[in-house]
Amino acid sequence: MTLNKSVTSAHTLANTSIAQVSLEQLHLMLDHLQAMVGYFDTSNRCLYANHAYARAFNTTVQNMLGKHTREIVGEAGWAVIEPYTLRAMAGEAVRYVREVDEGQHSSRWIEVHIVPNVIEGGEVFGGFVFIDDVSEQYRAEQAIRESDERAERFVQAGMEGIVFYRDGIIFDCNDAFTRMLGKRREDLIGTRASHLFQKKDWEFAEKHMHLGREHLYPAQLPRGDGSLVTVEIMGRPVMLNGQSASVASVRDNSQLASMNEALLRSQSRYRSLVDNSDQSALFILDRMVVYSNPAAHRFFGLSEVQLRGVQSLNLLHPDDRALALMRRKQMIAGDPDRTVVLRTITPPSQKLTPESKIGWVRLHGSMMEWDGRWGVLVFLTDITEMRESQEKMRKSLAQEKELGDLKTRFVSMASHEFRTPLATIQTSSELLEHYNERLSAEERADAVADIQRAVQRMQSMMDSFLAFGRMDAGITAFAPTATSVLSCLQGFVQETRAAQPRQYAVSIYLEPPLDGHTKLMLDQTLLGQMVMNLITNACKYSSADSQVQMRVAQRRSEEGIFLLISVRDQGIGIPEKELPRLFESFYRASNTATIPGTGLGLAIVDRAARAHGGSVHVKSALGQGALFSLLLPWVQAV
Predict the structure, then answer these.
(1) 333 class by beta-carbon count within 10 Å (0-12 exposed, 13-18 middle, 19+ buried)
(2) pLDDT confidence of 17, banded at 50, 70, 90?
(3) Is the bond preceding residue 512 a cis peptide, omega within 30 degrees?
(4) How confident is the model at residue 615 (pLDDT cuts 50, 70, 90)?
(5) Does position 587 have pLDDT exceeding 70, yes or no?
């Protein structure tokens, strides 16, 4: 697009002093200007740009025409320019200076003028942009500012020595420098700078002086009384009265050197104390171990090199890491209580492995600065043996309490369960003793039968006690033999039904692949105790007209193949919250108080199932019967 078309589309340009010049001449002049000239409409799109403007952005005039300013200068440049364009399009002439990044650590400075194009009636129709490169001017001004700043620093350095020298000869110095060396000013002026140094320090200083730029170095300068003063010298070249020279500021670091030396001695003592402490110490920076003492090496079984760089959380048990992070936040917030008990793992790992060794520590942490950054110094006290002793004591107390509870339940059960048969025996025997001649033969037979049933009940309880005692003591041997599953279960059912005071319907269902010929390796004695106890309970807690169902099947799972024997009744059921304790010895559900029982039957079933390498499970709800399931390993008899 030509300037002629730009003017036509904008109706008219603002009245200017060049109105008499032809558009062609104006176009030609603008294109050959070194200054950058452009014209943009109110939507910030380029309608005209001269060649200098295009070259500044490494493009051509044709590529710029019609483009938005954002597309020409980029997002970062537009963010700077946009506020000024808004002001210009509102009718205000704008001037500003900005830095343009040219890459490779280079930049230039430009001065921008935006003149709004205001037509008749005051409407803004666009804006002329004039840009000049003012980099040299800006750098000159910056150099002046830097010079002024250096002068200001010299003035403010009243406690530092200032020395001016040219060609190695001192021609001026301040009073602070004379006091530092204990010499007069007139004795120092005209002296060669090399005479103020020891030989080794002068060789170092001269090397830096010849570099011709600002330099900083330490030295020890002889004083007038022969002593040495430790200093830090900053030298730099300057121009004075049109001639090159050098100026040096000299800072007395004697006190600082003494303090550093004392600090190093103090740090050495503290380091020695920590290194020789029996308490493990770690310094954690950015959650990584950067220091560890020998006690920590012994505790974790790792060398200093192996511990350095380890993620600190990987030294802790995964379940304790959240607690450690919470305590760290509290410590940063200023919580004075910085002690916590945690578990450790060795070797360090993100998760527990079979090789992980777990220990216990009491950890105390403190925030400390390390190389300008804040980290955590932690001391670890090994309390593993103490925790293990406490755990053993806790288990011992728990076992003792459990044994006490067991004894209490046994005494309560025995006194309750033996009382009824004993009372029956006593009553029946007294009848036979005192009224034998008055009793009919049938009555005498009933009394004898009552005594026999009471004795049988007591005998059954004693058998349960003995069986449980042998299992609990580990005396019962596991002796599997080839067992015909169906015939064995049928025998147990008949034996159990015969011992019941009332007859119950007990049915057995076999599921394929089981049949009447299936033989498995089972301990028949333990199997009988399990099945008979389950059937006895099913009958005992059910009404006389209900049915007890036994289902026998094969079950496969990820753990292997099992024989499933389930016994379902339609009895009183078991409260759901009491199911977890049902297989404890002498434990009876709360709704069985009026029904005789020792509380050992299901405990015997559980132990016998485990002796086989199997398990027993229960599902029940109050008033909805119960389902007991035995899972025994399927071992085919050969």
Answers:
(1) exposed
(2) very low
(3) no
(4) very high
(5) yes
Give this prediction's pTM: 0.37
| Distance between CA atoms of residues 397 and 412, nearest Å | 22
Give CA separation, 140 vs 147, 184, 213, 214, 267, in Å. Answer: 11, 39, 19, 20, 49
Q: What are phi and psi of 362, to 5 degrees?
A: -100, 115
d(CA 508, CA 364): 66
List CB contacts of 619: < 8 A, sequence separation 6 or more. 626, 627, 629
Q: Which residues contact 31 (CB under 8 A, 6 or more apart)?
A: 50, 51
- Strands laid side by side in the 626-633 sheet: 505-510, 547-557, 560-569, 626-633, 615-620
What are the backbone dihedrals phi and psi of residue 369, each rounded to the nearest 5 degrees, phi first?
A: -90, 140
Q: What CA–CA distance (Å, rounded) separates 221 from 177?
A: 11
Residue 337: left if φ>0, alpha if ψ -120 to 50, beta else—which one?
beta
Q: For the sheet with 106-118, list strands across it.
A: 46-49, 36-41, 124-133, 106-118, 94-103
Strands 169-173, 215-222: pairing is unpaired
* Amino acid (one-letter) located at 52: A
CB burial string 166-202: b at 16+ within 10 A, e below: eeeebebbbebbbebbebeeeebeebebeebbeeebb
Residue 525: which residues within 8 A CB-CB, separation 6 or more? 479
Compute and round to an integer the Cα radius of gyration of the chain: 51
CA–CA separation, 366 and 224 (whole Å): 49
